[in-house]
Amino acid sequence: MPRMIRFILTRLATGFAIGSAVGFFVWQNGFAAAGTLENYLAKGLFIYLFASTISMGYLATALLLEE
Hints:
This protein has 67 residues and is an all-alpha fold. It is built from 2 helices and no strands.
């Protein structure tokens, strides 16, 4: 695999993992509610959107600081 593609995938995956953990932590501490289907869907979307935002920021920062 070319070096640039490996760099991008590694940074996106790392940022997504960090964002998922933080999104889960924020949801559990701020939005705890009953376990309905709508709650699980909202929780999944919240964590996904949080993680995708953090992963793109992590990748952009890594590209900016790469020499």
